[in-house]
Amino acid sequence: ELFGSVEPLLPSLREDGVAVWVLGAGPYPPGVVALQELLDAASEELEPEDVWEPEDMNDTCLYIFTSGTTGLPKAARVSHLKSIMCLSFYELVGASSRDVVYLALPLYHMAGSLLGIVGCLGIGATCVLKEKFSASQFWDDCRAEGVTVFQYIGELCRYLVNQPQRPGERQHGLRLAVGSGLRPDVWRSFQQRFGPVRIVETYGMSEGNVTLFNYTG
After folding, report:
1. Does the pTM exceed 0.85?
2. Domain locations in the chain as residue ranges
3. pLDDT tens-digit map of 139-149
């Protein structure tokens, strides 16, 4: 559904040697790789390891889109090693394969894609993907999907605290909220209003090599 935004740029992308992959029913113009056709035709047999195993774990695995904390938004390189390290994120904060993780963060950022999706793969947890965060629907979603873990950025918790009070907002299975940027006043209000949810605040940068965890609360 986003291809229309990219299509006018195709000539300049071709000149720069940038490949365009699209998932979804076509047709697409020449030079665009239609992934769905390739997936339908692909064998279910795995290729030998030497085909897909990276030669160097520090080579580029993927690019994510940073929010521009240190300048304008830009693409940032993520190595195979950093991607693999993200497999242990949810284990570090106390989640397990029995958890159901609610994720409404953009998947072009590191928090949503690598910590969220890859983190769930790392522990074998269920991931509930929400296309767009809705403060008014959040607790209903949690009850309907059996959510036990919420990955946030601080503003999402502020949106929830600022919602009008309603019956049943403490009747949920949420036990853990993990994320970044939660202000102390919102932290206190969140726990007072919605119950004894454990909060683990973390901080890291896409292009940094140190991550901080507030285990003590």
Report:
1. no
2. 2-41, 87-213
3. 999 999 999 99
